Amino acid sequence: MLRVHSIETFGTHEGPGLRLVIFLQGCNIRCLYCHNPDLLECRGGKLMKRKEIIEIAEKQREYFGTTGGVTISGGEPTLQTKTLNKLFRSFNKRKIKTALDTNGTIVSDDIKRLYKKTDLLLLDVKHIDEEMHKKLTGASNKNILEMAKYRENMGKPMWIRYVLVPGWNDEEKYLRQFGEHFFGYKMIERVEILPYHTLGVYKYKELGLEYKLSNVLPPTKESLDKTKKILSEYFTKVLVK
Questions:
Q1: Edge-to-edge strands of the sheet including 98-102?
Q2: What number is the average pLDDT over the span 151-171?
Q3: Sign of CA dihedral 180, 181, 184, 187
Q4: CA distance 75 to 61
Q5: How buried is residue 39: exposed, middle or buried, by Cβ count under 10 Å (0-12/13-18/19+)?
Q6: What domains, with CATH codes, occur in the chain?
Q7: 3-state class of 30 per DSSP?
Q8: Which residues neighbour 110 within 8 Å (Cβ) at sequence distance 6 or greater?
Q9: How many other β-carbons are positioned within 10 Å of the β-carbon of residue 208?
Q10: Each residue of 187-201: pLDDT tens digit?
Q11: I want to staple 165 with a disulfide (CB 3.0 to 4.6 A). Which of 10, 96, 141, 196 is the partner?
């Protein structure tokens, strides 16, 4: 059984092609800018059998084409790794392409096995500086960098996703540290710059939670262009999403 928050059919933002996107409930970190606070608690959502998810994927299979498939996102999906391993094994047998959208903060043998079953890894790198990463998310980035290296050594593709938060991770020194760290990685197909936004702030009010970045505005076009220009010095494909 998987604890699922929601399902998106015909998704176009969580990997290549048209995708079935499963958002799992629960997260192990607390990003200050999280736009889905309703996904954080592990006890929310609804329980779904693997068979149910496979049936939905099979119904949508004809729309996947040669590039689409299933993306498991969250929350943090690797909190439910044992069940995901079984689910991805079924997808692999059915030749349904898989993508995993993860913060990479958890390291275990089960997760490494899951990476092997995953066709595309979408790895969220919140900040390259460890202390700033802790301030931004409440967790270290050491495991994230370790799992990025593990994926690189595995020889399977990944996309790096970077939420650009003004005043937090948009300084040139941090962007260059980011670029220098990953420079030379052959398995990074693209870097996606995701502009910070405030579209989920209303959820905090509904849940009675404090939104701690209320004084932060979304990045300007100038800032996004500058970020893309800097990162393009290190990576062959950089996109602003």
A1: 46-48, 2-11, 19-24, 69-73, 98-102, 120-124, 158-164, 188-195, 238-240
A2: 98
A3: negative
A4: 25
A5: buried
A6: 2-240 (3.20.20.70)
A7: coil
A8: 81, 82, 85
A9: 6
A10: 999 999 999 999 999
A11: 196
Q: Which residue has the tokens 């301030």?
A: 135
Report yes or no on whether pTM surpasses 0.90.
yes
For helices 81-93 and 109-117, angle between their N-to-C axes, nearest 10 degrees: 20
Q: Tokens 């979304």 belong to which residue?
A: 218
Q: What is the pLDDT of residue 126?
A: 97
| Residue located via tokens 């929601």 | 6
pLDDT at residue 29 is higher than 90:
yes
CB 240 within 8 A of CB 224: yes
CA angle 227, 228, 229 (to 5 degrees): 90
Q: Residue 136: in which H helix or E strand, if any?
A: helix 130-137
**Structure tokens belonging to residue 81:** 């790794």
Residue 71, both tokens:
């993306």
Tell which residue, 70, 65, 63, has the closest CA to residue 117: 70
Of 166, 163, 177, nearest in space to 223 by CA: 166
Q: One-letter amino acid identity for 164?
A: L
Sequence letter at residue 168: W
- The residue count for the chain: 241
Provide CB contacts within 8 A for 235, sequence distance 6+: 179, 182, 183, 188, 190, 191
Q: Is the distance from CB of 179 to CB of 173 less than 8 angstroms?
A: no
**pLDDT (0 to 100) of residue 160:** 98
